[in-house]
Amino acid sequence: MSWETVIGLEIHAQLLTKSKIFSGASTAFGAAPNTQANLVDLGYPGVLPVLNKQAVQMAVKFGLAVDATVAKRSVFARKNYFYPDLPKGYQISQYELPIVEHGKMDIILEDGNIKTIGITRAHLEEDAGKSLHEDFQGHSGIDLNRAGTPLIEIVSEPDMRSAKEAIAYLKKIHTLVRYLEICDGNMQEGSFRCDANVSVRQTGQEKFGTRCEIKNLNSFRFIEKAIHYEVARQIELIESGGKVKQETRLYDPDKGETRALRSKEEANDYRYFPDPDLLPVVISDDFIAGVRKTLPELPDEKAARLVHDYELPAYDAGVLTSSREMADYYEVVTKHLSGDAPRDKVRNAKLAANWVMGDLSGALNRDGIDIANSKVKAAALAGLLARINDETISGKIAKEVFESMWSDGKSADEVIEAKGLKQITDSGAIEKVIDEVMAANPAQLADYRSGKDKLFGFFVGQVMKVSAGKANPAQVNELLKKKLAG
Amino acid sequence: MSELHTYTLTQLAAGLRAKKFSSVELTKHFLTRVEKFNGEINAYITITADVALKQAAAADAQLASGKGGALTGLPLAHKDIFCTDGVLTTCGSKMLSNFVAPYDATVVTRLKEAGIVMLGKTNMDEFAMGSSNETSYFGAVKNPWNLNKVPGGSSGGSAAAVAARIAPAATGTDTGGSIRQPAALTSLTGIKPTYGRVSRYGMIAFASSLDQGGVMCLSAEDAALLLQSMSGFDEKDSTCIDAPVPDYSATLNQPLKGLKIGLLKEFFEQGLSPENAKPVRDALAVYEKLGAQLIEVSLPNLPLSVPTYYVVAPAECSSNLSRFDGVRFGYRCDSPRDLMDLYKRSRGEGFGSEVKRRIMTGTYVLSAGYYDAYYLRAQKIRRLITDDFANAFKQVDVLMGPTSPTPAFDIGAKVDDPVTMYLNDIYTIGANLAGLPAMSIPCGFLDELPVGLQIIGAHFSEAKLLNVAHMYQQATEWHKRIPQRYA
After folding, report:
1. Concatenated DSSP letters for A394-461?
2. Does residue A343 carry a pLDDT above 60?
3. Catalytic annotation on B149?
4. Nearest CA in chain A to B344
5. What percent of chain A has pLDDT over 70?
6. Which of A273, A310, B1, B104 has minimal Cβ neighbours within 10 Å of its Cβ?
7. A188 CA to chain B: closest CA distance, Å?
8. Looking at residue A347, what is its pLDDT?
9. If DSSP codes are grouped into helix, strand and coil, which group holds residue B456?
């Protein structure tokens, strides 16, 4: 029997507003517990919510970026349930009339094809506080700093058919909200969170299987693992004659498994109804036009431009635009290079792409540094690539230079000068090295000349070694061919 | 000086400005009366004598330097539903019997800034749910006209305090008649403004879409004076309407010639005995003499007010009262075993039975499978009732009818029969559902108990209502009567 996986995602993105969605308290992360919650956030008797306009602007911005319909009139509703970190006993959210509906997001599949994932809706709501169950010996601690922080909940259609597709979609949304500067995307701090609705059905079957909602997914890796685990669990259950129960399941990253939290029967009846303390949110065309003006170049647009202008492979363009910071960095590098030499624009662009995606990303990952804080700035990297272009150094030496630049913060020229890494381009000097190598390896020379062409690489290696990698590789090739031929 | 309590707020204001007495003298006079009479009436939950005397002294200083405004130095009592910074704010409930509010409601702030002296916080039905002031955790309030009778509710403490002249005026709130019905039962002038005219910030919510703050006092002139300072936009309340506040006192004396008064057919047909109707009909005759024209109008959906209200109000209250959970403030049960026990016992022990009844009703009508049949349908009927009123105001300037189906009833008479109790609000609920301003003014007595005339206006017609009420009070003496014991 073959099975098909069906996944829909609910993403909660905290909006980067200065103050909370319905109060004037600050939203900054990391303050001492309960110091950033005012009377409104604490749900004191008599207080009333007042909507933060900036939160509305951000939700509209998201809606425009995913080509969605921005509702001219949306309504806040109360979702009623009791929990100590929910001070009012209800969460102000949107239910029947959300602010954003019918959006979409394209993802690139492994085979290079593009798939469009539907975005059912995105609505504004307030976050709850945090319950802390450790360190309180028989009690739970409540921190209400987060209570009232604005969120948009982005609900996808059940359009994804594998964990890979789900991750691709999630990463695209993650990239987008950071481009839009409406969310910092920090998954550890919980400002970007995801729940996955997972079900399986027999291949070819039209009806969806019973779904489970998986919660507590706070990294891309966990999400992928949790989906894999859940899919396997559901298939095994059905194949052994069981039935999937609709329920909420919690992912346990330590054990790598999901476990039941509550079933549909145990689920709360949230008793949604329009919040009588808030008026419907009425959005004018002018307001939407104003927000549209603030839209930056979006990741897909930027990638398309890189492909068009620089003939970059789609893959490279995708990686380079996966964050606004990386794209900005990349574009600074290419800009510096194009102003440098009358070199081919396309070649420079590819050279820069390789370096940003390769050595630079490697060093950033290794040291756990954001590209915005890179130890080698974009202009400095361009300086290094310029030395490759003008053949001062080879690509290989450049890697060595880069490492020195990374650790010492010096410019490429300073490193090359200090270490004497300048490439040897003087034919005479190179010929002298070739002569030495030929003289030192008479047997190999004889073999080569008797037809063992493969030994050419050996001679190149020897020449580079003797020249400490500084000999210009193209010249070495050319001269070596001539000399070996005799 | 011994008769200061017999004056209206307007007269007291004139006396203060003319330096006939000081605010401290006036305040002391009322505090002495509170001390003397509150025990038998139970109108106040908290008496803030120290605050009052300090505020009075400050007011006297202002008056002396000629800086005071129209309200500077006048004493007033606040319904205990308004949060008052640093002062116990109970909402008539055990749940908040230990709650000292950390801030002032906007109404309190505005009156404070206008120089009002706060005498204390008045008793009320628990969380404003009741029509007799018998659901208060702090005990029933007695009607100063007959101590065996209820003063009405939920603003029963405010009504009794003013009627017994132990406060010259008081704030109230009206969700389904909670200002007008007690005003009628105690012979006071009470006004519930248009929904959104007075800020709800700091007014502990019962049913957010219906609640509106207002005043209870001795004359329409007094009401105009107080409402002037209380009204107006507040950025802390999203439902508060940003529209200019007219000068209410300026238009009080406009002649009523040609005024079109709509008589609500349904009101006179529904549960009103001929003897109860008589004082109201007499009042209408007075209006005719003043040049008004009486036109019978019908609001066909109005008889659905009570069932509609008892879906919408409990639905909102069931959610509004969720915050009273024993976690952050208010009553908490002794040594809870776990979270569920904390919730169940704190709420079970902290709320009285009427509040619980409404929370359960509200939870039911909002629950899955019942929402459409109850809540949604009630909202649709609410719309129809609002439209009925709008149609009526195309024909007439104001609507008139009784405020309450009967005068004050015996304490204990209806307390075990919620449906009969709910019918007390049969005439008042319509204005709340439609968000309209409405008043009750004294129009006579039946068996020595006061009867009220209700006047309902179009949205934001407070000035007209006050004018219509004032002209009647210029022609009649009912509002000047004082219960003998408190004269």
Report:
1. -HHHHHHHHHHHHHH---HHHHHHHHT-PPB--HHHHHHHHHHHHHH-HHHHHHHHTT-GGGHHHHHH
2. no
3. no
4. A82
5. 99
6. B1
7. 28
8. 85
9. strand
For CATH 1.10.10.410, the residue range(s) in chain A are 427-485
**In whole angstroms, how large is the CA radius of gyration of chain B?**
21
Q: B90: pLDDT confidence band, cut at 50, 70 and 90?
A: very high
Partner residue opposite A269 with nearest CB, options B91, B316, B368: B368
Chain segment B432-469, per-residue pLDDT in tens: 999 999 999 999 999 999 999 999 999 999 999 999 99
Q: Is B178 an active-site residue?
A: yes
What domain range includes position B238? 4-259+397-486
CB contact under 8 A, A88 and B239: no
The answer to whether residue B381 is domain-embedded is no
DSSP B116: -
- Catalytic-labelled residue, pool B178, B187, B199, B404: B178
How many whole angstroms separate alpha carbon A3 and alpha carbon A334?
46
Whether B384 maps to a domain, the answer reads: no
Cα–Cα distance for residue pair B289/B275, rounded to 1 Å: 22
- CA nearest to A77 within chain B: B319
Residue B357's pLDDT is 97
Please provide the average confidence, as pLDDT, over all residues in chain A.
91
Contact A45 B200 (CB under 8 A): no
pLDDT band at A105 (very low <50, low <70, confident <90, very high): very high
Catalytic residue among B93, B154, B199, B305: B154
Contact residues on chain B for A88, CB-CB shorter than 8 A: 322-323
- Output the six-digit token pair for B345: 């016992």
- A271 → closest Cβ in B325, B343, B363: B363
Does residue B331 sit within a domain? no
CATH architecture, range A427-485:
Orthogonal Bundle (1.10)
Average pLDDT over chain B, rounded to an integer: 96
CB distance A471 to A430 below 8 Å: yes
Note the pTM of the prediction, 2 decimals: 0.91
The arithmetic mean of pLDDT across residues A390-414, rounded, is 89
Q: Beta B398-402 vs B260-264: how paired, if at all?
A: parallel
Residues 85-114 in B contacting A (C-alpha not used; CB under 8 Å): 89, 91, 96, 99, 101-103, 105
**Option in B201, B238, B363 nearest A278 (CB):** B238
Rounded distance, CA A306 to CA A285, Å? Answer: 32
CB contact under 8 A, A48 and B323: no
Residues B239 and B372: beta-carbon distance below 8 Å: no
Joined together, the tokens standing for residue A303 give 């990638």
Summarised one tens digit per residue, pLDDT across range A134-179 is 777 778 899 999 999 999 999 999 999 999 999 999 999 999 999 9
**Count of the separate structural domains present in chain B:** 1
Whether residue B133 is contained in a domain is answered as: yes
